[in-house]
Amino acid sequence: DAKTTQPTSMDCAEGRAANLPCNHSTISGNEYVYWYRQIHSQGPQYIIHGLKNNETNEMASLIITEDRKSSTLILPHATLRDTAVYYCIVRVAGYGGSQGNLIFGKGTKLSVKP
Amino acid sequence: DAGVTQSPTHLIKTRGQHVTLRCSPISGHKSVSWYQQVLGQGPQFIFQYYEKEERGRGNFPDRFSARQFPNYSSELNVNALLLGDSALYLCASSFPQGANEQYFGPGTRLTVT
Lengths: 114, 113
What we know:
- The complex is a heterodimer.
- Chain A is mostly beta strands.
- Chain A has strands at residues 9-13, 18-23, 31-38, 45-50, 55-56, 61-64, 70-75, 84-92, 108-113.
- In chain A, strands 1-9-8-3-4 form a 5-stranded mixed beta sheet, with no helix packed on it.
- Chain A starts with 8 loop residues before the first strand and ends with a strand.
- Chain B is an all-beta fold.
- Helices cover 0% and strands 51% of the residues of chain B.
- Chain A binds chain B through residues 2, 32, 34, 36, 41-46, 49, 51, 87, 93-107, and chain B through 4, 31, 33, 35, 41-45, 48, 50, 55-56, 58, 88, 90, 92, 96, 98-107, 109.
């Protein structure tokens, strides 16, 4: 089972920031938080990951709370092309056994509206 | 740089047949993972290969098998196809260092009739 909880759906106005929350209250000290998104019928797209510190790249920002029990993915200026299902996943980085795979939950369906 | 590539894009098979799906990882990536995504659900882990050895296996029957070649490309084989095997099959590759984030290909859409 997925170790994260996300809202089923969210709406966002085009041009505004989209803030997608994720709860991972049972996260272990060596587990990373990864975010992916999937646009209809395409392969999941890697967005960003973090361990303890906040992270930013050209796509998004990831804010992780100090206790690491929750995080927020921020798309600073959402466009219609950001409409997708967003998945928050926690796992240990590594190979073998449970480390090797991503466990996808149901994710959050983000709809960006004009 | 080229991303993960998969072939074929779409495939239609009949129940009982066998299918082989192919995946080429991003250059420099040595690990390949396979996922199955049934319509309306998130991807589900099938296999992971690293340095040509199976490193992880999900809860799938023995009809599913895979292998990784010396050039790190991979094949997923499914025998005795069932209607329930109809799905999007995704391949992901990763670099063997750091946070080991996985990058996905576009997938192969398999329809079993």
